[in-house]
Amino acid sequence: ALAHCTPLLLLLAAALDTTATRVCATVALALYACAEAAVTHSHRDYLNTYVAVLVLLLPPPLARGAARGACTYFLSAAGWSKVLVGGGWRRWSSPGTLRVVLRHYEVALRDTGFAPLAPPLSRLVQQHDRLLRAL
């Protein structure tokens, strides 16, 4: 339910622009991030919570800049950590890396009862190094 109400709360917070709606949206994002992390061990939703807190605490011009800074930092840090953990740029950018990721998601989604968006397309990409390099 949190996954479905969070976008609505964000729209409501933006439309009404009151402290109460911003607090509700921030709390909903935080709860969703914690629930998502507890189930999937993923940290992908934490940035949303951090940005919501920045928007809640800072005046709009500063909040926009701080949010852009947080996004830039998180994207850069995530990219560099993948390159470092993956054994360097050359090894990380090899077709085998994306092939492993695509296979992992296909199995993980199947195990949870969901099918990949386009299983035949995923399998086609996995079979061709040129497609993997292009992506």
Descriptive notes:
- This protein is an all-alpha fold.
- It is built from 8 helices and no strands.
- It has helices at residues 2-16, 19-40, 46-57, 60-85, 89-92, 95-111, 119-127, 129-134.
Residue share in helix? over 70%
Kindly report the average pLDDT value. 82
| Main structural class | mainly alpha
- Could you give the order of the helices and strands? HHHHHHHH
Terminus-to-terminus distance: 33 Å
Q: Tell me how many strands there are.
A: 0
Strand residue percentage: under 5%
Rg for CA atoms: 19 Å
Low-confidence stretches: none
Shape, principal axes of CA atoms: globular
Number of helices: 8
- Largest sheet descriptor: none
Identify the notable features of this structure and list them briefly.
single chain; globular; 82% helix; 135 residues; mainly alpha
In short:
The protein is mainly α. The chain is built from eight helices and no strands.
